[in-house]
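[agent] plan:
  1. take the single chain provided in the ticket
  2. run structure prediction with default settings
  3. attach structure tokens to the ticket
  4. add a short note for the reviewer (M.T.)
[agent] executing step 1
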Amino acid sequence: MKTISEEKFLKLVNEVSKESCDCHDGFCIFRTIIEHQHFDIRTLVQLQCILKFRYEESARHNYNIGKLAEMKWFESGLAEEFANVYSEELTFTEIYDRTVEYYNPLTGRVEHESNCD
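[agent] step 2 finished; step 3 output follows
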């Protein structure tokens, strides 16, 4: 596994944690645990993408879809899309936006090709 610099790792942890908690400027137990455990940043980013997807899908359906988000992430093709998109050069937001760019909520699938003629 390729390692990234400590500075870049901490920057990504801070960016990812902004999506999860409200303690951006103060002490954050989430960030502290991640920083000291040295999780694989790719895994951390994908978990955060799934969490953001869960919130967006829950809002779309007007109820908390909960753990269904993980199943939808994999069954819809978003996990594969994430694997294709992921780059340590991108920010979390860029990774997420590019991953869900072709997700069609009506079909629940990633669709790169248009069905229109």
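[agent] step 4 note for reviewer: Strands lie at 103-104, 109-110.
[agent] ticket updated
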